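ARCHIVE CARD
CATEGORY: sequence design from structure
SOURCE FIELD: tokenized fold
FIELD CONTENT:
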């Protein structure tokens, strides 16, 4: 190694030692500082690059999850629509020998055969690819028609669903004021000039309600009365309500299908409890089990039970279809109403439920 120095700028040391120039010492110090600074810069660059890469990876993972969820939701939507078409195909099915109790090998045909007898189809499920579709078919004639209900019928429904009797007269008077064509106030009623409607910015319809949900627009008709006491309020409620909505419809001629009516609906007809018990037993068929092939009250059962044709009918007319498509934990629901017997079935009511 060669060492260069200037004689004019040397530092003398003891004999036998090597003398270094001052300029070389300064130069080595500067190089050392530069190397340290460069190392810090490199470290910061590595940290920033690592952050960028990790952020990019996180965003890619997040986008992949979002795309996967959107793909599942799209499939669930299509499956729900497929369920409606499946139900329409069931509605179009005709037995070769109607009236005979035939057990088919295909579960689909067994469910389709129930429709002609007015027996509900509950929880019929089909798998499609990586998803499933579940179809329920019920009948609007299993409920009480709002436009055909007498005051006594309403009051029996109120009793069965837990509506306090202090509210009965007000509820009925407000409903009648909502539907009648005049602006005359009934006792306990409310017309368009009432504070309730003024603060909400709309008037009484002065025409019959079109849907059950429309009752929520009427004074004193609350969600609790229609859909029951919320689960989080059950502990504090002295008299919890079970909800009227499931027992009501605006479709049909007012007659009730005994194959799909609930006990609450049957009670509202004013028939003896013993007859109601007989109806519920007859619906189970000979095996006494629900949701089996022999379910349903036949015409012979109808006559044997002594059911009045003024109150009851076994002929379904308006069909309620609830179709749920599911892919993984994503579901899509469609609820709609069709009229039976039409060559080209068109929905009379259509509601796409919440997606989860």
């Amino acid at each position: 190694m060669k060492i260069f120095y200037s004689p004019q700028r040397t530092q003398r040391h003891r004999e036998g030692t090597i003398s270094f120039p001052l300029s070389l010492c300064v130069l080595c110090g500067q190089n050392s500082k530069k190397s340290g600074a460069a190392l810090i810069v490199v470290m910061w660059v590595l940290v920033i690059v690592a952050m960028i890469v990790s952020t990019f990876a996180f965003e890619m993972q997040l986008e992949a999850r979002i795309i996967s969820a959107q793909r599942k939701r799209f499939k669930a939507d299509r499956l729900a629509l497929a369920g409606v078409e499946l139900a329409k195909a069931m509605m179009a099915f005709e037995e070769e020998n109607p009236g005979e109790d035939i057990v088919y090998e295909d579960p689909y045909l067994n469910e389709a055969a129930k429709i002609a007898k007015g027996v509900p189809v509950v929880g019929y499920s089909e798998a499609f690819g990586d998803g499933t579709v579940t179809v329920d078919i019920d009948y609007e004639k299993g409920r009480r028609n709002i436009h055909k209900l007498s005051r006594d019928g309403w009051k029996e429904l109120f009793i069965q669903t837990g509506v306090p009797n202090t509210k009965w007269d007000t509820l009925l008077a407000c409903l009648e004021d909502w539907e009648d064509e005049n602006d005359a106030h009934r006792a306990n009623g409310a017309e368009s000039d009432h504070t309730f409607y003024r603060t909400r910015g709309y008037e009484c319809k002065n025409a019959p309600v079109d849907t059950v949900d429309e009752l929520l627009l009427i004074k004193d008709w609350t969600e609790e009365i229609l859909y029951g006491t919320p689960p989080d309020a059950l502990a504090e409620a002295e008299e919890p309500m079970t909800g009227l909505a499931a027992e009501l419809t605006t479709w049909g001629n007012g007659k009730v299908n005994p194959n799909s009516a609930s006990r609450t609906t049957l009670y509202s007809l004013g028939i003896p409890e013993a007859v109601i018990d007989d109806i519920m037993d007859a619906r189970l068929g000979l095996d006494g089990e629900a949701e089996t092939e022999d379910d349903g009250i036949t015409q012979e059962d109808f006559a044997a039970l002594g059911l009045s044709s003024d109150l009851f009918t076994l002929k379904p007319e308006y069909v309620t279809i609830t179709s749920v498509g599911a892919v993984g934990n994503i579901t899509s629901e469609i609820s709609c109403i069709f009229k039976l017997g039409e060559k080209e079935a068109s929905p009379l009511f259509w509601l796409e439920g919440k997606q989860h």
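CARD ANNOTATION: Confidence is low (pLDDT under 50) at residues 1-16. Strands lie at 121-128, 131-139, 144-145, 248-249, 318-327, 330-339, 349-352.
SHELF: design records, drawer C
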